[in-house]
Design a protein that fits this description.
Blueprint (H helix, E strand, L loop, with lengths): L2 H5 L7 E4 L8 E4 L13 E5 L9 H12 L3 E5 L8 H10 L2 E5 L5 H10 L7 H18 L3 H13 L3 E5 L4 E4 L4 H10 L5 E3 L2 E6 L8 E6 L6 H37 L4 H10 L7 E10 L1 H10 L2 H10 L27 H12 L5 E4 L6 E6 L5 H15 L6 E6 L3 E2 L4 H20 L6 E3 L6 H6 L3 H22 L3 H10 L4 H8 L3 H15 L6 H13 L1
Parallel strand pairs: 2-3, 3-4, 4-5, 14-16
Antiparallel strand pairs: 1-5, 6-7, 6-10, 8-9, 9-10, 11-13, 11-14, 11-15, 12-13
Helix pairs in contact: 2-3, 5-6, 5-8, 6-8, 8-9, 10-14, 16-20, 17-18, 17-19, 18-19
């Protein structure tokens, strides 16, 4: 089929941006991978929503992969960015690749179906109906009716009902019998769409699932997945519109955090706080959050020692935590998405979803974590912590990411903001240490940090491990070679404050066995467990590894 045949169909509204319209293509391939070359055989019309584009430099690589694979043309959708960026046009011109602009109201699946029929100058009746239906759905979003209007239109046009849920099971629109179960199915599904009970699940957008939405359609739509994709695309548009409304809030909050870290005059800080919607006498809390792939959690904890955190935060340029450009949500480490956001960005995105948008959020430049100001409004700091734990517990179902959160105490007035940022950051780094050690509760409050845990959190992970290894390695080696229990006995002995009898009772052994094991610990390590300094060293070593 010729490119010119598609351009001749006026109802589609396609526009040639560069290249030769006389070129022909054999098949249609839809992708948002940053390098789809290995899935292409040549001669295709490639359609993309531009979700792979994080900046102007990405276009050359994407187009280069297409040109190397020998594709015939590229169709770029307007829906995500609202336009086709000039850098993509320039890259196609340089590579000699034909580029088409695809209007928001035209579904890629409509184009793919159309290309398979090879029409000439007009639309088949059913394709025209599908295009008209898609335009009506897009209009329901564009006219500001919101998700309820979109779902009402969908039920009337498609006969499809269901709900949109957050990753934690919050019902955003529609109705679902068991939203928590559906959210868990979404988080753990190897691939979407998928069945979950009597529902079919579709991802909304291509962001990381930790901050994602899921469309749960009633019934089995696996055989009619195009309907689910169509509705999910419209929900994505509405979510992007909602994101636009929060950009100003995030920018103002980012400026407030930057001003607090720069020791700005308290009067100006209070004015900025009021601009962010928090009165000078209203209690609030500061939350610090990061989320990263499980495999990266240990590296993240090691790479961010607290001794540098506050200094770096004071010097860094404060940026938006969830959106880098209009409507952009960067993607995460899933087989059906592309590359992932930094831990601070993803942490901020997940935090907003955990708190149902009731958060004034800003993100540091990714060096240390997202920072959020949360008006308490009837909650205590402890109540907020429990709410965060419930949400983080739901996200724990994710196989590829862990959310770590630190929470300050209740604060009032802008003068307390800098201290709250530092306190939340310390608490979050304790959560990093817990994640590094495989802990389950990764929401840490300020009440928990004024212990040895804070001291350990300020030490780089490699130093902690080296300290623990040097002290405990002889015991671990002895236990391995003799199937003994020296390390466990040592930990129990210290927890019992050096009481022989209490330790023996907990271990269900004779008190003389405990005495023998502790003497063996002293012989192997050269330490004296009657000395407080050596007890402290062992206590810290057991918790530092």
């Amino acid at each position: 089929m010729r490119i010119s045949d598609l351009l001749a169909i006026e109802e589609l509204g396609l526009r040639l941006l560069t290249g030769d319209p006389r070129g022909e293509f054999d098949t249609v391939h839809i992708t948002d991978l940053p390098d789809p070359g290995r899935y292409l055989s040549g001669g295709e019309l490639v359609l993309t929503g531009l979700l792979w584009r994080h900046g102007p430099a990405d276009s050359a690589g994407f187009v280069g992969a297409l040109a190397a694979a020998g594709v015939s043309a590229l169709g770029a959708g307007q829906a995500w960015l609202g336009h086709v960026p000039g850098d993509l046009v320039a890259a196609c011109e340089s590579a000699g690749l034909t580029l088409l602009e695809v209007p928001t109201e035209v579904s890629f699946r409509t184009l793919a179906d159309l290309a398979g029929r090879r029409p000439s100058g007009h639309l088949p009746g059913d394709v025209r109906d599908a295009l008209g239906r898609h335009r009506r759905l897009v209009a329901a979003v564009a006219e500001g009716g919101g998700l309820p209007e979109l779902f009402a239109t969908t039920a009337a046009e498609l006969g499809v009902t269901g709900a949109v849920l957050s990753a934690t099971g919050r019902v955003i629109v529609g109705a679902a019998d068991d939203p928590a179960r559906l959210a868990r199915a979404y988080l753990t599904a190897p691939r979407l769409p998928c069945r979950a009970g009597r529902h079919t699940l579709f991802g909304v957008g291509r962001g990381h699932r930790a901050a994602g939405w899921v469309l749960a359609c009633d019934g089995d739509l696996m055989g009619r997945a195009d309907l689910g994709y169509e509705l999910a695309a419209c929900v994505t548009l509405e979510r992007s519109r909602m994101e636009e409304g929060r950009r100003v809030e995030r920018r103002l909050a980012g400026e407030l955090v930057a001003a607090a870290l720069a020791d700005t005059d308290p009067a100006e800080l209070n004015a900025r706080l009021r601009t962010c919607g928090i009165d000078a006498t209203e209690p609030y809390a500061v939350v610090s959050a990061v989320a990263s792939p499980v495999a990266d959690a240990a590296r993240s904890a090691r790479a961010n020692p607290a001794v540098n955190a506050v200094t770096n935060a004071g010097k860094s340029q404060v940026a938006v935590n969830a959106v880098r450009s209009a409507g952009e949500r960067v993607t995460g480490p899933r087989p059906d998405v592309t590359r992932g956001p930094d831990p601070a960005t993803l942490g901020g995105q997940a935090l907003e979803e955990l708190l149902d948008g009731e958060v004034v959020a800003a993100g540091a430049d990714g060096a240390d974590g997202a920072i959020a100001l949360v008006p308490l409004r009837g909650l205590t700091a402890g109540g907020l912590a429990e709410r965060l734990r419930r949400g983080a517990g739901a996200l724990a179902a994710l196989p590829d990411a862990r959310l770590r959160v630190g929470l300050s105490g209740a604060l009032t007035g802008a003068a307390a903001l800098r201290g709250g940022i530092e306190e939340a950051g310390h608490a979050r780094r304790v959560a990093d240490v817990r994640a590094d050690a495989g802990g389950a509760d990764l929401v840490v409050t300020s009440d928990e940090i004024y212990t040895h845990a804070l001291l350990l959190a300020t030490v780089p992970g490699d130093v902690r491990r080296s300290f623990a290894d040097r002290l405990l390695a002889p015991l671990l080696d002895y236990d391995r070679r003799h199937q003994s229990d020296l390390v466990r006995t040592l930990g129990t002995y210290l927890d019992c404050a050096g009481s022989w009898n209490s330790c023996a009772a907990l271990l269900h052994v004779h008190v003389n066995t405990v005495r023998y094991r502790i003497r063996r610990v002293e012989e192997l390590t050269g330490r004296d467990l009657s000395a407080m300094a050596d007890r402290v060293d062992f206590f810290l070593a057991l918790r530092a590894g």
